[in-house]
Amino acid sequence: xxxxxxxxxxxxxVQRGLIGEIISRFEDRGLKLVGAKFMRIDQxxxxxxxxxxxxxxxxxDLVDFITAGPVMAMVxxxxxxxxxxxxxxxxxDPAESDPGTIRGDFGLDLGRNVIHGSDHExxxxxxxxxxxxxxxxxxxxxxxIDETWLYE
Length: 152
Ligand code: DAT
Ligand code: MG
Description:
152 residues, Alpha-Beta Plaits, binds magnesium ion, binds 2'-deoxyadenosine-5'-diphosphate, four-stranded antiparallel sheet, 4 strands, 38% helix, alpha+beta, single chain
C-alpha cells in the first residue's frame, strides 16, 4: 500500500518558521520525501488547487491567503501515506485538533491552519495535486536506508 501524497506548508507556517519542524515530523515517522519545491502560488494555481471550494463563501479569502507568501510544496511517500499524513495534521480547524497533531500544536484559527495535505476520502486527490504542482522528473525514486527496519 505504498503511495505518494501531496503536502504543503502554507504561507502562515512558512512565516512562522515551521518548515523544519513539520518536515521532521514526517521524516521521524518514516515517510520518505520524494519531491520538494519552495515556491509562490499564483492566482491560477490557487484556483485549480482549491477548485472544489469555488462556490464556498470563504473561497476568495482562501485564495488571498494561499497566494500571500511562499509555500513549501512536497511529496511524501510511504505505506498508507495520505491517510497517515491527514491523521498527523489533525482536523481542518486547529481549535478542534488534538494536541500532538500539527494543527493542534501550531494553530488556533481555521483560516490559518499551517498545512495542507491531500484528502484521503477523495480517491485520486493525491495524484491530482501532485500532478498540479510537480513535473514527473521533479520526483525522485530512492531508498531510505532504514526501510528494511521500518516495514515488516
Ligand atoms: P482541509 O484543509 O482540512 O482539507 P478543506 O479541504 O475542507 O480542509 O478546506 C480547505 C481550506 O479552506 C481549509 O484548510 C481552511 C479553509 N476552510 C475550510 N472550511 C472553512 C470555513 N468554513 N471557513 C473558512 N475557511 C475554511
Ligand atoms: Mg481538503
